[in-house]
Every structure is written in C-alpha cells, then in structure tokens.
Amino acid sequence: MLHKTRGIVLRAVKYGDTSLILSVFTELFGLQSYIVNGARSSKPKAAKGNLLQPGNILEMVVYHQDIKNIHRISEFKLGYIYTSIQLNVVKNTVALYIIELLQKCLKQPEQHLDLYYFTENTLQLLDMAPMPAIANLPLYYTLKVGEQLGFKLNGRFTEYTPYLDLQEGNFTDLPPHHSYHLDPDCSELTDKLFQCAQMQDLITVTMSKDKRRKLLYAYLDFFQLHLPDFTEMHSPPILHEILDA
Length: 245
Hints:
Elements lengths: L1 E14 L3 E8 L3 E7 L20 E7 L6 E9 L10 H17 L7 H16 L8 H12 L14 E3 L4 E3 L8 E2 L1 H12 L13 H18 L8 H10 L1
Parallel strand pairs: 3-5
Antiparallel strand pairs: 1-2, 1-4, 2-3, 4-5, 6-7, 6-8
Helix pairs in contact: 1-2, 1-3, 1-6, 2-3, 3-5, 5-6
C-alpha cells in the first residue's frame, strides 16, 4: 500500500551502479530502509539523488508492507529546505551528531512520533538559530532523546539533592557508590539544560568548553547504561573540535 509520510535521512549507502539504500527515520513507521533506483545516474533528472543526503527532511510517498525489510519510495521531495546547515560548518557538525545519535538509538522499525517531531523541529531550529544558542544544543538534544526513549531524569537539583546519579537517573542527597554520577556543578548545569523550554533559553546556560565536553561524554555514558546495544559514537571529538575553534 502507498502511504504519505515525512522522514529524516540517517544514512545513504551505494547499491549497484546507480541505486541507493536509505536508512530513514520516518514519521509513520519509525526506522525504515528504502531502495531508490537511479538515484546516482548521470542523467539530469537523477539530480534528485542530492536530496537524499543524511540530515535532509523529506516528504515521501512510500510502498510499505510490514513483512518486508526493505521498501520502495514512489515519490519524494524536500520537506524543509535548509538555509544555513549545509553552509555553516558548526551547524553541519551539530546536525551530523544528531543523526549519529539517532542511528545509535534506533534499531527497530517502531513508530516514535514524539521523538520524530522533536528531532525534525530541532533540525529546523538549528538551521535558523543564532550561533550563541548552538553550543549547548547537543547536550539539550541528548537529554531530551533520553526522555523520549523512556529514561528521563527524575527530580530536580537542589541544595538537598546536589548529585545526579546517572545509573538510577535521579538527583540524590549523597554521591552514589559508583562512578556514574555528576558532581554538584555538573548536576546543576544538567538540571538547567533539562528545564529549557526552547532553544533561545540555551543561551542562558553558560559553561566552559571543558565542562561542555565533560557533560556530553557523561550523557553518552548515561545512554550506554540504559541502552545495552548503544555503541561508541564517532562524532563527539569532531563536534568538540569544531565548537572549541
């Protein structure tokens, strides 16, 4: 059957002489694989293959059957046209981090409507955002993805609960008897980030580059604790190098 759905391209792999196999996080069906024939042809009409780059947001008409692992796309076009992400190295690197995080988290073809809408909105906001708001975006997005996947942080930072236990996902009065926790300073910053309602609020959370780097790796440890098949990411070192430049 044919279905209309939006989707975010996560990966495009060459297949045969002219085709691509896409990994797409779709609105209706979650993570799906699609084969697109002729996407790499030298013919002018095949320039549409340029629309299939990772990070692009598509409007698609797709053939879908639950019993199949690879589906076909009948029609596709850009669902949002970026104005700065592909031109700005900082924004582009943040977008690639977002895409890699999704690749690590999404393993099954399950619908995740809230996560899909949040991610699409984040990419569009990233495209329009002023530069000062971008540095904290990877931290904010990572925390919110954890919430969408079911392991949100519980409680709040206070003088009585100054430690964030990453293993249990809550704020505690004393440091736990394991290494997966944040000190009071990092715990307070995490609480401030988590409470931000919109991207502009991220500007108000100030921290050093070293602190930002430390927090991101702590959040990724948090993911490894709660997602058994979550493997090491390759984009954070590049992200920090670009953000620190």
